[in-house]
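Now for one record:
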Amino acid sequence: MTRPSTDAVVIGSGPNGLAAAVTLARAGLEVTVLEAQSVPGGGARTLDSQLVDGLRHDLCSAVHPLALASPFFAALDLPARGVDLVVPEVSYAQPLDGGRSAVAYRSLDRTVAELGVDGGAWRDLLAPLVEHERLLTALILGNRRELPPGLLTGPGLRAVAAAVTRLLEQGTPAWNLRFRGGEAPALLTGVAAHSIARLPSLAAAGTALMLATNAHGAGWPVPVGGSQAITAAMIADLEAHGGRVVTDCEVTSWRELPRARTYLADLAPAGLLRIWGERMRPSVRAALGRFRHGNAAAKVDYVLSGPVPWADERMAGAGTVHVGGSRADMASAEAQVADGVLPARPMLLFSDPALHDPTREVGGLRPGWAYAHVPAGCPVDVTELVTAQIERFAPGFRDVVVASRCIPAARMAEHDANYVAGDIAAGALSAWGMIARPRLSINPYAAGIPGVYLCSQSTPPGPGVHGMSGWHAARIALRQRFGLPAPSLAP
């Protein structure tokens, strides 16, 4: 039987897969997206938790620091497509022992004013980066092949120099020289911990500086209705341009695929190898087989009867709370994770989306979202560890917990195959890894087979809900396979 044919097939409907599909469809191609799960979206899904009827939890991502800052999403203009992005006044916060906390407002000036002795140091660290947020974000989220416009001007070069010097400072043992108190370093370290890597490190410092810059610039938005709202907007645009998404369609071999002129895979390298490995050059197959995954996250969903009773009332407005204590506490916990040890007090990310989106409440109950950093493949239900860690900074938290559910790291891949052993970054974050991700190649998206490209967050620019990996890969595919320019993404 002759296989059906199309212009392009995208495997995986995560943010990068959909970004690739939208780009290809807008160029006039016939595009089919194949998704193994029953609901599209990958890490950007909002599903009924089955804890309380009608109460929906974000499966993976909940707050989106790059939803406004990403060049792809900026071009697509999510708000113009009906996605209501609420930008909290408090981008993120860090509770500390003794009822203290450190707060990063969207306003840099207010943040500086409340950091006391280290306010000036915080301004000196971030003000030059916030001033050039758009340029630096475009550089960091680039494809490692092109430079963003304006980079080689005097202001552009000065911005890059400022970023590099700060990266070397915060990514090395010199990271404590800038600050005198405990609040500011803890506040920055909480953002660095998004990398789930040893602290300090260059990769973690890069993560901290970019996200902290966005926090004082475009902000860290919370999508009304949950992450699925972003996915739905992208699918609507894809379908408006003739594309389609087929769910419950797991691909295990290239022989199962429709005939197409190009294939883009929003997969971890292991998934790409499973489908096309037999057709790859041995050198490419071996390089992708050496791809290294990183540390992991376990997910805990809560049903809460009210807001979290943080000891410091300023925490109540935070879109994201980094729960880990002092800089030393967090560095110790992340080192234990890297050594394969489950910390007694793990590093957490926590969000109460109903604070900024009251539609998330059902019958007076609200979702609570938490990630705990754990060793790769950890099978432990970490609910008690996470609850105790939050209670440490929010006495009475247990009293507002109505129900809970844990997805251990060992089971995260059941919900998204790219999260191998719970690695939600789809690859270890290191300075070298970010340069040679997924393998050392002039074209990091090429799969070593004509017309086949990798477009997941295992490729540059790496992890995050930004759509940039898919956008980069799709534009290369358009040029190489169809001789077409990149299309406009404007509504």
Notes: The CA atoms of residues 288 and 314 lie 46 Å apart. The radius of gyration is 22 Å. The chain has a mean pLDDT of 96. The first strand starts at residue 5 and ends at 11.
